[in-house]
Amino acid sequence: MFKTFLLLFIVFAFLSCNNDSLPLPSSAGGFDQVMIVISDDLKVEMKDSINKYFETPYLVLNQNEASLDVGTATYPKLNSLMKRFRNIIFIGLKDGNQATDKYVKSQVKSLNTVEFRKNMWSQPQIASFYLTENKETLKKTFASFAGSLRDKYLDYELNEYSQLAFASGYNAGLNKQFEENYSFSLRIPKDYILAENDSGFIWLRRDDPEAIVNLMIYVQSDSIASKGIETRNVLGKKYVSSQVKGAYMGTDTLIDPLIERIDINGAQVVESRGLWRMYGDFKGGPFLNIVYRDESNQRNVFIEGFIYAPGEKKKIYLRQLEAILATFSLDTST
Description:
Elements: H1 2-17, E1 33-37, H2 40-45, H3 47-54, E2 69-73, E3 87-93, H4 99-107, E4 115-118, E5 126-132, H5 135-165, H6 172-182, E6 193-198, E7 201-207, E8 212-220, H7 228-239, E9 248-251, E10 258-264, E11 267-279, E12 284-294, E13 299-308, H8 315-325
Parallel strand pairs: 1-2, 1-3, 3-5
Antiparallel strand pairs: 4-5, 6-7, 7-8, 8-13, 9-11, 10-11, 11-12, 12-13
């Protein structure tokens, strides 16, 4: 018995010494979850700042949902399971003597600069490190990196939402139609069904028990298609209604939509985020759309996703729509 135990121990020790050759375990953590490793005293002093920058409400939803779901721990309490978290942020002080501070100092090369490590204890995983002189400089510099760091983790998490959105696969036939007819690529999950197809307008939807997720694609040369909000109002009034006679979908004017120019796979598009409502009925939810101006063919490409999920959290659906719209590409060779 002792010889068997000794043999097993030697084999285990041998494997442990050669664990560099072993594959890393899969990372853990829910969507948009991040673990901040910080000393207990800093955690108390920086609590409001952490909430302000990392747990700020995600835009634009009709109910508050945090951008990131934040957990905290000190380095000594970072056990093997917690080390498998997909997203980890380490914050330390150069003049600090806590174990967390000492670990961060051992990992970074410079002060007041965010440094990144990939797949330290699991994969996929991204860990970031920030070291500054003392508490005072942390309070002064926190705003300079926290917002951009939050956005980086949100972008990184889009890969996870993409896997969720395309769990059923994607509609290769529909993507081929986009490529052949309109010279762009857009992947649509297989579980979206066709609700309307009318001369340059396609409406697709996925009906879940908790939510109805919609996609509208509109390709036209008319000027209205160059403006995201105006386009969605015209299309909503024409195609989207409810069981209430005369009801139609439009843009909720209580909250101004957020409009900005962004880049998607090399294409410059105008993105709009806001809330929709059913005029004449009591329905509404968030929407997200992009408009691309196809100069070579003198036409506009409008793509929108909108959600109806009464009583449910909506961020998880909006983030999946972001992942779908992120597949928009002018490169049709793939």
